[in-house]
Amino acid sequence: MSEHTSTNEATNLYQPNDFIALALGRLAATRVTPEGTEKLRSFIEFLRRRHGDNTYLRMWDAIVDRGPEAIREAFTELSERGQILRSVISFRAFVTKAERDAIFREHTRAAGAAIRR
Questions:
Q1: Of 48, 50, 90, 95, whose CB neighbour count within 10 A is largest?
Q2: Rg (alpha carbons) of the chain, rounded to whole number
Q3: How many helices (H) and strands (E) does the chain have?
Q4: Is there a contact between 39 and 93 (Cβ–Cβ < 8 Å)?
C-alpha cells in the first residue's frame, strides 16, 4: 500500500461521512467479485454520462482495470486519496441495503453520543 496515512492521522482528518464510507469500503473489500466489479464499472459509466468525465472517474477506471486487489486497496486506503475515492462511488455492488443501513445507524449513534459528551 502506497502513500497511506496511519489510522491516527486519518482519524484527525475524517468527518462522520468519511467513517461511514470507510466502514462500507472495508466490508466491500471482502466481497470483490467479477460480477461486483462489472457493476462498479457500470456505475462509473453511469456517473460519467450523468456528470461528465473527471479526474476521479478516470482514477476509478485505472483501479478497476488493475483488478480486484487494486479495488480492495482503494476501498480501504486510509490516505486522503482513499477518502476521496470512496466519496465518489457507491458500494451497492458489494454491500446490501440492510448492511448499508446498519452501518449508517451505527455511525449515527456514535456521532450522536460524541456530541452529547
A1: 95
A2: 15
A3: 7, 0
A4: yes
Helix (H, G, I), strand (E, B) or coil at 78: coil
In whole angstroms, how far apart are CA 29 and each of 33, 69, 91, 111? 10, 9, 10, 24
Instruction: State the cell numbers at 117.
Output: 459528551
Q: Which of 13, 20, 16 is nearest to 90 (CA)?
A: 20
What are 11-53's pLDDT values in tens digits?
A: 555 687 889 999 999 999 999 999 999 999 999 999 999 999 9
Coarse DSSP helix, strand, coil percentages of the chain, rounded to the nearest 5 percent: 75, 0, 25
- Spatial contact of 95 and 28, defined as CB atoms under 8 Å apart: yes
* Interatomic CA distance for residues 93 and 6, integer angstroms: 28
| Report field, pTM of the whole predicted structure over 0.85 | no
Closest Cα to residue 108, out of 20, 24, 25, 28? 20
In contact, 4 and 74? CB cutoff 8 Å: no
Type of residue at 66: R
Q: Which three cell numbers stand for residue 60?
A: 476509478
